[in-house]
Amino acid sequence: MKNSLFLVIALLLAASCKKDNYAAPGSSFKGRIVYQGEAVNVSQGEVVFELWESGWGKRTPINVAVAQDGSFSALLFDGNYQLVLPKGQGPYLTPPDHADTTQLPLKGDRNMDIEVLPYYLVRNAKVSASGRQVTATCKLDKIITDTRARNVERITLYVNRTQFVDGINNIAAQTLNGADIQDPANITLQVNVPVINPVQASVFIRIGVKVEGVEDMVFSPLIEQKL
Amino acid sequence: MKTYCLYLLLMLTLFGCVKSNDDFLNRPPSNILLDEQVWKDEVLVLSVIANLYDRYPDYQTIENWSEFAAFDEAFASESGQYGRHKNQQYGYGTWSYWNYGYIRELNLFIDKCGKANLLKQEVRDRFLAEARFLRANVYFELVKRMGGVPLILEPLTYDYKGDPGALQRPREKESGIYDFVLKEMDAVMQVLPDDAGIKSRATKGLALALKARAALYAASIAKYGATTPQVSLPGGEVGIPAAMADGYYTTALQAAQQIISSGKYALYNKKPDNLSENFAALFYDKGGNSEVIFVKDFKLQSGKVQEWTLANQPRSLAEEQQGGRLNPSLNLVQCFEKLDNTFAPYMTNAANGDYIYYDKPGDIFAGRDARLAGTVILPGTEFKSKKVDIWAGYILKDGSIVTANNFGGQASLGGNLVQVVGFDGPIDNLEFSAQTGFYVRKYQDPAVGSGRIGTKSEVWWVRYRYAEVLLNAAEAAFELGDKATAAGYLNQVRARAGLIVPLTAADITFDRIVHERKVELAFEGHQLWDMKRWRLAHVVWDGLSADLTKHPESAKSASTRVFGLLPYRIYNPGTPQDGKWVFKKVLPSNVTSAHQFRLGNYYSFIGDDIRNNNPLVVKNPNQ
Fold it and tell me: Ranges for the DUF3823 domain (chain A) (predicted)?
């Protein structure tokens, strides 16, 4: 009697596992935030966009965070999503052709780059080191030049011990104010890297630009520099 | 036998059922009071409104000390709160508030009170005015945190017909909510008692004070909101047109001047011989306090007591094995100006890099605004008539430091085992020690037992006081271009703090206004709202790890990390410096991140659940 009771419970438990559990979301949605095919580098996890799926009663967005190299990836269920780039997110404007909402039907894996219009891009970033002093040069390209253009508030060289480098994650930084930039095509920044304990052979460097009135910064691609 | 019992039971049950008892289902409940019982009895109505008063929203108060460490005013010296200094960003939902349950109960109270004709007319009118005051205050709190919100002025009832559309209201304009608050204050001030002796219930003075504050907030959002055009919504739910600024400033000035000219309130000045003590007493003196306008009151042995002194008493004099939690930052302490109205960071080192030697630890703070020692317990000063013991260690001839890592710890010095650190610390990373070199003094209760878990404190929480009214008047007058009037009001507040060299009209700048509020109203829950309405929050808390500013007088100086100032003794026998005091500016090791106030923090996130239930509610900007 007792044994059969256990058996019934075990069976019920096993059966309920099967009944309750949904399959995990299996379709991946990957891509990059790009300007004419060139990735827009941002702060790690600070820029997000929203995916909305209607038909589920309550509406809450799935927030997808953008990695520092401008890439993103999300595991989702198949379905019809709406992709929304919220206003005020990112160091860019969204081109008018998908200013607000883009339809995103998802059936199986999908790769898609999201085209945006950044205020500035940091290009040609090069780094050299002598001793513990790091020198970086870059070119600042103004992408938006019409009435929507904005000035540069500051340009900052960030150094970190790990590959995540931005305003939050850094061990050394050197800032040049926007008003002090002589030649945007040829910007030089220098910083002394503090002693790192435990010792490591190289550091990671990015140059970020803060645009006036825009919260998120745009960065150069990541550079690893041997010391 | 068994059958017999069964029959008996059955019969009893049947008898029980048929027993004639007509009012079985009509018995008055013994555990709740019904509307008709409440609304004929003044005392019962008073307890209803007392409950509504008790739910008055606050952000930073003496009941949640750690919130004062959220920005740059203080360091949280408790292990569980170090995270406040390791987090860089504030979540968009921080400071959000959406208490429509409270608003509904206020609306119900107003509805029922309006019909309660068994109460005496003047009693009823007062209750009604108090409830309207509280309701307007909730809307003021909502608009500060969320921007314009749906303005619900009657108890909404659902008809259960499947369509809640009638209950869904869109957000009012931000200016609309402020206008509502101002209009309500005009109405209730006619009815509320004009008695400065009433501190814990609404009075005419309070209605005027709230009106002045609200109008000033609206005015500065209109004026300084122009500097952050991104922080607005096209429907006006967030953001007030700049053209409305002057109107609001005028309203604020008039309301404040009405309190001032009534002569019912005055700056607290019972201890003119010791202005710092006077400033501290302003907050704990509950007998005939002429400055206080509205408080949340507490009472010993009533169950309604607060733990501010228990949490923050100096560790060396503590009545329990705790205290010392809130450590004011050097950022704040260096804002207190010198008696000649100039600003200067504290001098720790001479031009040649050597220390500056002081005879006593308090000497470095000499000749400063009296409010400094009234707000902060400085090294070398007293609390509860006993000296605090704040010093970080000995500095030897070769510059090395001898210290210990427990309260009053000992170490070998010149061959003798002596105490090498204060019983209050500062010891880095040791909770309850004064890790910035300071303890908070404002609101600390000097009564015996205030630091005991079994007693606690009955010092009240001051929500409105006359000095703020003067500062509001000064700011409004300044913004309207009347600098002479502004200087007059500022000088009243400053003279009480020992700054007797009056400011002239030419001295009054925006920075002055900002500075005066910062030092007068520190630890009174104003900072966040002030920084928001001036649109300074994202400028001052910009997320960059900058050094401590050398310009404490400037409103726009960044201040993202809390610094400390630690006193050391010199051990160098045979030299004139031996036994003297030097100071070191430090960054506590738990302060690892710089605060960043993002544009999306200006108006808190409205939850997805709220917007799902009411799709008419639009999202706040930049989130």
Answer: 27-116, 120-221
- Which pTM does this prediction carry? 0.90
Compute the nearest-CA separation of B588 from chain A (Å): 17
Instruction: Establish if B596 touches chain A: CB-CB under 8 angstroms.
Output: yes
Q: What is the dihedral of CA B25, B26, B30, B34, to 10 degrees?
A: 130
Q: Are B422 and B408 in contact (CB under 8 A)?
A: yes
Tell me the three state secondary structure of residue B25. helix
**CATH topology classification for A27-117:** Immunoglobulin-like (2.60.40)
Res A58: pLDDT: 78
Distance CA B191, CA B208 (A): 12
Contact A88 B88 (CB under 8 A): no
**B608 contacts chain A (CB < 8 A):** yes
Shortest distance between the Cα of B113 and any Cα of chain A, in A, equals: 38
C-alpha to C-alpha distances, B320 to B75, B311, B455, B614, nearest whole angstrom = 21, 10, 11, 50
DSSP secondary structure code for residue B394 in this structure: E
SS (H, E, C) chain A: CHHHHHHHHHHHHHHHHHHHCCCCCCEEEEEEEEECCEECECCCCCCEEEEECCCCCCCCCEEEECCCCCEEEEEECCEEEEEECCCCCCCEECCHHHCCEEEEEECCCEECCEECEECEEEEEEEEEEECCEEEEEEEEEECCCCCCCCCEEEEEEEEECCCCCCCCCCCEEEEEEHHHCCCCCCEEEEEECCCCCCCCCEEEEEEEEEECCCCCCEECCCEEEEC
Give domain limits for chain A: 27-117, 119-226
Q: Which residues of chain A are within 8 Å of residue B609 when distances are taken between CB atoms?
A: 58
pLDDT digits (tens, 9 = 90+) for B466-519: 999 999 999 999 999 999 999 999 999 999 999 999 999 999 999 999 999 999
A176 neighbourhood in chain B, CB within 8 Å:
none
Q: Out of A58, A88, A175, whose CB is closest to B622?
A: A88
Nearest CA among B35, B197, B209 for reference residue B118: B35
pLDDT in tens, B8-43: 888 777 766 665 666 777 788 889 998 989 999 999
Query: Residues of chain A whose C-beta is under 8 A from some C-beta in B?
Result: 58-61, 86-89, 167-168, 173, 175, 213, 215
CA A125 to chain B, closest CA, distance in angstroms equals 22
The one-character DSSP state at B413 is E
Rounded CA-CA distance B153/B173 in Å is 15
At B57, give phi and psi (nearest 5°).
Answer: -75, 140
Cα separation, B420 vs B422, in Å, equals: 7
CB spacing of A175 vs B593 below 8 angstroms = no
Domain annotation for chain B: domains and CATH numbers: 96-158+169-270+467-525 (1.25.40.390)
Q: Which helix (H) or strand (E) holds B565?
A: strand B564-570
Local confidence band at A18 (pLDDT 50, 70, 90 cut-offs): low
ipTM of this complex = 0.81
Q: How far apart are CA B427 and CA B436, in angstroms?
A: 9
Say how many C-beta atoms besides its own lie within 10 A of residue B79's C-beta: 12
Q: Of all helices (H) and strands (E), which one includes residue B376?
A: strand B376-377
Mutation choice for A interface testing from B230, B231, B597 by most A CBs within 10 A: B230
Chain A: give the shortest CA distance to residue B587, in Å: 15
For the beta sheet containing A48-52, the strands, ordered from the edge strand earlier in sequence to the opposite edge, are A62-65, A48-52, A79-84, A101-106
Contacts of A173 in chain B (CB under 8 A): 544-545
Residue whose tokens read 């009106």: B211
Q: How far is B146 from chain A (nearest CA, A)?
A: 18
Q: How far apart are CA B371 and CA B286, in angstroms?
A: 19
